[in-house]
Amino acid sequence: MIYKNGFTETLNLRFPLVMASMFLVTNVPMLKAGMEAGILACFPSLNFRKEGELDSVLKELNAF
Fold it and tell me: Tens digit of pLDDT for each residue in 28-64?
């Protein structure tokens, strides 16, 4: 399967770019920027350790 979007087509990439997750560094604005650019964005769930925080982040990103 080839992943295609404007970003991969512009750079003639056969495979997607993946934004590497970084413990305690990756945050919601960084994830949104990656998603907006067409990059597969991932994050370590341990970055959001407070009760309800991970659920809130997931809802925000899914609504984006």
Answer: 999 999 888 888 888 999 999 999 999 999 999 999 8
| Cβ proximity of 48 and 54 under 8 Å | yes
All structural domains of the chain with their residue ranges? 6-63
CB within 8 Å of 25: residues ≥ 6 apart? none
What pLDDT band is residue 1 in, cutting at 50, 70 and 90? low
Q: Determine if the pTM surpasses 0.85.
A: no
Residues whose CB is less than 8 angstroms from the CB of residue 11 and which lie 6 or more positions away in sequence, other chains included: none
Note the Cα 60 to chain centre separation in Å: 12
Q: Which tokens go with 43?
A: 């994050």
Question: Is 20 strand, coil or helix?
Answer: coil
